[in-house]
Amino acid sequence: MTPSGEEITETAVTDPEFYERLEEVLSRGMGEYLGLRFTEITPDSVRAHWRIRPDMHQPAGLVHGGVYCAVVETVASLAGSAWLGDRGHVVGVNNNTDFLRAVREGTLHAHAIPMHRGRLQQLWLVNITDDQHKLIARGHVRLQNVTDAARLGAS
């Protein structure tokens, strides 16, 4: 179950602590703001959906590009974490998101798949589509695999 009470229909993650960490992350900050609902979490694929709200709009009434960037980074990071497992943590080091089609309202769907998974880094492709399966945005996120998380942010 996700923090929203929805059931994840497919998962390959067997570590119960992974879901505890997931619930902690999604119950605060960006995960809470976006309102992402995950329907698949495996080391090879993550799927999520969310409803557009007016507070996600830019001044012209369209979904703000930062929303797409945040969703892309969130689902890619979760996918990378599922793949890396207990070997460490992932941090985003590059997010390149293209906005392809304007949206004002409705439900959008994100799907992350791996392009490269190596010892030091991963590269994930995330497609965002609408209910008619039209491509709305597409992003690539490069993740750094970190084995010593205590050193992150230290000077």
UniProtKB/TrEMBL annotation:
Question: Quick check: keyword Transcription in the entry?
Answer: no
Database matches in SUPFAM superfamilies = Thioesterase/thiol ester dehydrase-isomerase (SSF54637)
Show the InterPro entries listed in the entry: HotDog_dom_sf, PAAI_dom, Thioestr_dom
Question: Which UniProt keywords are listed?
Answer: Hydrolase
Q: Which GO terms describe its molecular function?
A: 1,4-dihydroxy-2-naphthoyl-CoA thioesterase activity
Q: Which GO terms describe its cellular component?
A: cytosol
Q: Which residues form the Thioesterase domain?
A: 61-136
Superkingdom: Bacteria
UniProt lists the family membership as follows: Belongs to the thioesterase PaaI family.
Q: Identify this protein by name.
A: ComA operon protein 2
Q: Which organism is it from?
A: Hoyosella subflava (strain DSM 45089 / JCM 17490 / NBRC 109087 / DQS3-9A1) (Amycolicicoccus subflavus)
Q: What is the lineage of its organism?
A: Bacteria, Bacillati, Actinomycetota, Actinomycetes, Mycobacteriales
